[in-house]
Write a structure and sequence with these properties.
The complex is a heterodimer of chains A (about 300) and B (about 170).
Chain A (H helix, E strand, L loop, with lengths): L9 H22 L3 H36 L1 H38 L11 E8 L8 E3 L12 E4 L4 E8 L4 E5 L7 E5 L2 E7 L6 E6 L10 E4 L11 E5 L9 E8 L8 E5 L5 H6 L8 E8 L2 E8 L1
Antiparallel strand pairs in A: 1-2, 1-12, 2-5, 3-4, 3-12, 4-5, 6-7, 6-9, 7-8, 8-11, 9-10, 10-11, 13-14
Chain B lengths: L2 H19 L12 H10 L5 H18 L6 H16 L7 H25 L10 H28 L9
The chains are: A alpha+beta (about 300), B mainly alpha (about 170).
């Protein structure tokens, strides 16, 4: 048996550390993640992220192999379904190509130019989480790729999933909308509302003030033009329970389309647009730059298009 | 602590942080808190109690700096768990299973404290989908780690091959 009694100074040291911790928490809350604590966070993340990426480079293929083996039984069916989906999408692509050609022809006929309001997109891979309890996620692109704090994050299907909370040169931390802390301004039909995260749930709570019409299961929930965090019209989820207005307000639950737990690749939108770009786009010869980065296991490509 | 032990501890904590934020962030059932596990095992070594508390606080602070929750939350939690571990470490080396159980119970205390203090400070990022499941799974995973790797880590940090031999 061990016989190691703690020293007499353990309690005073613990109390000192608790006081220091509470002071840190208060300071961090007051500075809203900015200031000295923000710099400190970015510094630590900058140091650790190369090691994390190296570890993810080794670990991710192993996890994928384990996942594949465990899902072997369903892979054949999934493969057949995907082949059918590919055939449908190829047919749709031909139709879109045809429409695009007609669109370009019309643009030439009417001397139309790009508006300069196109939103840049950066594709990034998810490589981890800060700890076992946190809902936040690390992505492998950072300020070097044009990502800044507050930008919206979509999944590969274009569904709203998160916002960027912190950025270093080579990585960023994103916080899913399902764990907050901020509400998302949304619309259901013509009605405006706020979508808030719920404790221990993958659904979100929809609150509508001045509601005039009921909402029904399956109604699509889109980002609102009143939102300062997301471009309007992006799909967020669907109403999970019928609800009618009561005293001008309405509350129901919404199931988000995107599942943060299953995220492997995300798309970060360069939004809101850079004010400088907005000004230059009004000049006679607009100059629009869109950066698109694509990550696949083992390789990374970046292309820049200018117009 | 001797410089060699200090180097071993720093390396262990760094590896724990890297593994936590990469490998164990993608597993759905085995989800340990590796950094907290290392802190608990540090308390079972001959390291002075005050040093254990300080190192636990700093380890928590590093995890806080990497995460999105308020700074100091895990630092406080890890320090309290380290104190509990220091107070109860005499019971940790009765047997291998007891070591695992000790680690599991301390982790449970830590996770509950983290969620409670996090809720008081409005940290919704800790309370997302599956939080109840995680409150159970994290201590269980740490218990398994304690059972398998606990004695080895104590021997490594103490530089004493006879430690935790359960004689």
């Amino acid at each position: 048996m061990l016989n190691r009694e703690p020293g007499d100074r353990a309690v005073p040291v613990l109390i000192t550390l608790l006081v220091l911790g509470v002071l840190l928490m208060t300071f961090d809350v007051r500075s809203e993640g900015g200031g000295a604590t923000g710099v400190l966070r970015s510094g630590v993340q900058t140091v650790v992220s190369p090691l994390q990426k190296a570890a993810a480079f080794v670990v991710n293929p192993v996890i994928e192999v384990v996942d594949s083996v465990s899902n072997l039984a369903t892979l054949r069916e999934e493969n057949l379904a995907l082949q059918a989906e590919v055939a449908e999408l190829e047919a749709a692509l031909i139709a879109v190509d045809d429409q695009l050609a007609r669109f370009e022809l019309l643009e030439q006929l009417y001397n139309l130019e790009e508006s300069g309001s196109e939103i840049g997109r950066t594709v990034a891979g998810v490589f981890g989480q800060p700890d076992a309890l946190s809902g936040a996620l690390f992505i492998d692109k950072g300020s070097d790729d044009g990502i800044t704090v507050g930008q919206p994050v979509l999944d590969t299907s274009g569904f709203v999933v998160a916002t960027v909370q912190r950025v270093t040169s080579g990585s960023a931390l994103i916080v899913p909308i399902t764990v907050g802390p901020d509400a998302v301004a949304v619309t259901v039909g013509d009605q405006q509302g706020l979508l808030r995260p719920q404790v221990n749930s993958n659904t979100m709570r929809l609150e509508m003030i001045d509601a005039t019409e009921p909402v029904f299961i399956g109604d699509r929930v889109l980002t609102s033009s009143a939102s300062v965090r997301f471009p309007s019209g992006l799909p967020v989820g669907e109403v999970a329970a019928d609800a009618a207005p009561s005293l001008d307000s309405l509350t129901t639950t919404v199931t988000p389309f995107a599942d943060p737990e299953a995220l492997r690749i995300v798309v970060v939108l360069a939004w809101p647009p850079d004010p400088v770009s907005a000004i230059t786009s009004e000049e006679p010869e607009p100059s629009t730059t869109t950066t698109t980065s694509t990550t696949v296991p083992g390789s990374s490509t970046t292309s820049t298009e200018g117009g | 602590m001797r410089p060699r032990s200090l180097l071993a501890l720093a390396t262990l904590l760094l590896v724990a942080v890297i593994l936590q934020t990469t490998l164990f962030s993608q597993t759905s059932i085995f989800i340990p808190d590796v950094v907290l596990f290392v802190v608990i095992m540090l308390a079972a070594t001959r390291t002075r109690a005050e040093a254990v508390l300080g190192i636990a606080f700093l380890a928590g602070l590093v995890v806080d700096l990497l995460g999105s929750a308020v700074l100091g939350l895990r630092a406080i939690t890890f320090a309290v768990v380290a104190y509990l571990a220091v107070r109860t470490r005499n019971r940790a080396d009765i047997g291998r299973f007891t070591t695992g159980l000790w680690v599991g119970l301390l982790t449970l205390a830590g996770v509950l404290l983290l969620v409670t203090v996090g809720t008081l400070f409005g940290q919704s990022v800790l309370l997302g989908e599956g939080v109840v499941q995680r409150i159970i799974l994290v201590p269980l995973a740490n218990m398994v780690l304690g059972w398998i790797f606990g004695p080895m880590i104590v021997r490594l940090l103490d530089g004493d091959t006879t430690a935790f031999r359960y004689a």
